[in-house]
Amino acid sequence: MLTFFPAPYPNEWWYSVLCRYHVRSGYRNYATTSHELYGKKPITHGRLFPGSSIHAVVSQHRLTLDETQLFTEHTLAPYYMRFFSAKKKQDIIDKLLQGKAAGITCIDLYGLDGKQGLRYCTKCYDQDMEHYGEPYWHREHQIPLMPLCPEHNVPLMKYEIPFSRLSEQYIPLSAITPEPAKDEPAEKWEPALTQMLTQLLMMPVSTGPTAGYNNLYIRLLEKEFGNDKVQDKPSLDSDKIKRAVRALYGEAIFQQYFPRLSSAILARICSWSLSSPERYALLAVLADMPAKELFGPPLSYQDPLLTQLIEYRKNGIVYQKEKLAHKIGVSPSQLDSLARKYDVTPFWKQCSRESKRQDCIRIMLTHEEKELVHKAAKASGDGQVAVFARTMLLEQAKVLLDNRGGDTKDGYE
Predict the structure, then answer these.
(1) What residues does each domain of the chain span?
(2) Burial 310-334 (b: 16+ CB within 10 A, else e)
(3) What radius of gyration do the chain's Cα atoms show?
(4) pLDDT of 39-81, one tens digit each?
(5) Closest to 70 (Cα-Cα) out of 51, 91, 83
């Protein structure tokens, strides 16, 4: 039975509490402290996701600490469980309260610099010394993706050590000589990402994926990351998102979290099927949305193509169909699909020949051949590949028939 145990400071990481106990115990050997805390059975306590350490210490020594409160306010469990279903969250909490393993293994341990380690804010260090007489490890600083201190907006410092070694030793922050704060401007995305990650940690544990809808999907569509095709349900374009992620966050974050982003992975994100929080956080910042909106009531959505179409109708100008389609960024046939989908009465001039074009010729091309046609269409100044291909085909057909004395009538001139 322990004769004393330090009360956790605000947002103090559980590992930090154990480190402060080790200091107060006066033991020089880490193993002696572990034996006193846990008995003969060794227990892992240096994890980013909590294990059985809290239950072992509180129950064996009959401490008056609330285990649930320790899990929710002094570990990263709320952050890593944020995108779990309500049932899965409760199952995990129940296991932890019984001292059982939660079975959470897919935790990203590496920071933005690709290294593991304990992190701290030099300003928090000084502030804690003033308020409590000692510094401590803050749990929010330990989120590997966290770029800045949420309170002071300064870069976090790191004491490099593999997390696998933390159970072998107790390293209080008071044993670390703080390095000078980095005097460098923050990247433009760092404050927003810091705020997002902090919200994902601090929100009530019950806050999580919404049933039947995904606001992140809506916001990404509004930011024009949707597929250019006219579909009943718009889909996100993985290539557009990858380009935007690389442009905003840089190559290192892109390679760490999005190198194999595909339509299938985006579909899993939009259905809340992925559970790790990092990609949700990065995409939410890309979409300029806070965590409150991410899990808030369903957002309304209007297709940007429909918005453009309505604006052109308000202008009162009667465009040729192909010209209007080109302005909106769709093909003439997609313009028809767009009008049918949203029940918009055509307000453009139909091509006089259009009603005659009822037949089609399907041509199979290799990828290289298709790219060649696209490049040629672009070089010709005609953005509509189908129109360019038809024009070229008909021109070559007329040349061939003219050379052979054939008939070029029947509407092909």
Answers:
(1) 14-175, 210-294, 307-356, 359-413
(2) eebeeeeeebebbebbbebebbbeb
(3) 30
(4) 888 888 888 998 899 999 999 888 889 999 999 999 999 999 9
(5) 51
